[in-house]
């Protein structure tokens, strides 16, 4: 039951149904997830441990952790290092990894691009995960997977603007083609440029973008 409550709350945070800075009482959260107080409290403390919730003043007050952009900057430093190493190893790999999944997703005509923010964010995360896993270092893949989860909320904000989605398709296409051609210097340069573009976008996220993400999350949920 605890794990179910934990995943439910974390999903709502990532989907912006519960947005950064939102405050809740335990009774509100218990009603929201259909849980009794004991598993709810354990799940909430797990979310605090993982950096998604904060205990606030009052006997039963909780808040979705506000976005800490310095923290995300540090995570992006680690991400850049891990993915650069992965691409270098891939370009030298023998046998060469199978990237048919990424080809089908990203090397598509413009008319076939997807523009649903949550889905594109998921595919973007998958692109980078596949690259790291293809490098063949299981510990590096484990660390990268944890990092991906921590930056997921920012990644979803990054795709609330159509232009950013188009840019992701262009960047991923160039990176993938360079990797397939084993052009290691070009591939790593393109990768760094791509990640730096995402990093720069973090600095321009506004309350308006947060509100837009929440509105889109509601529309996506009601549509399902």
Can you characterise this structure?
Helix 4 packs across helix 6, helix 6 packs antiparallel against helix 7 and helix 8 (162-180) runs antiparallel to helix 9 (184-202). A hairpin with a 5-residue loop joins strand 2 (53-55) and strand 3. The protein has a three-stranded antiparallel beta sheet with strand order 1-3-2. The model has no long low-confidence stretch (mean pLDDT 89). It has ten helices and three strands; from the N terminus they run αβααββααααααα. It starts with a helix and ends with a helix. The protein has helices spanning 2-14, 26-33, 37-49, 69-91, 100-106, 117-134, 138-158, 162-180, 184-202, 207-223, and strands spanning 23-25, 53-55, 61-64. The chain is mainly α. The protein has two domains: 2-64, Winged helix-like DNA-binding domain superfamily/Winged helix DNA-binding domain (Arc Repressor Mutant, subunit A, Orthogonal Bundle); 69-223, Four Helix Bundle (Hemerythrin (Met), subunit A) (Up-down Bundle). The protein is elongated, with a radius of gyration of 19 Å.
């Amino acid at each position: 039951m605890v794990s179910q409550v934990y995943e439910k709350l974390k999903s709502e945070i990532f989907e912006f149904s519960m947005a950064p800075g939102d405050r809740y009482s335990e009774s509100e959260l218990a009603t929201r997830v259909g849980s009794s107080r004991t598993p709810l409290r354990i799940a909430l403390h797990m979310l605090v441990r993982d950096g998604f919730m904060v205990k606030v003043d009052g006997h039963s007050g909780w808040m979705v952790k506000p976005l800490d952009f310095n923290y995300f900057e540090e995570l992006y430093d680690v991400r850049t290092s891990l993915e650069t190493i992965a691409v270098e190893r891939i370009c030298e790999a023998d046998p060469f990894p199978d990237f048919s999944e990424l080809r089908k997703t990203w090397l598509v005509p413009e008319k076939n691009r997807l523009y649903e923010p949550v889905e594109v964010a998921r595919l973007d995360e998958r692109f980078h995960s596949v690259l790291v896993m293809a490098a063949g270092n299981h510990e590096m893949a484990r660390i990268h997977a944890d990092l991906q989860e921590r930056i997921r909320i920012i990644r979803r904000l990054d795709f609330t603007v159509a232009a950013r989605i188009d840019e992701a398709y262009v960047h991923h296409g160039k990176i993938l083609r360079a990797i397939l051609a084993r052009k290691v210097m070009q591939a790593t340069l393109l990768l760094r440029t791509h990640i730096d573009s995402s990093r720069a976008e973090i600095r321009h996220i506004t309350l308006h973008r947060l509100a837009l993400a929440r509105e889109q999350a509601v529309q996506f949920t009601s549509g399902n």
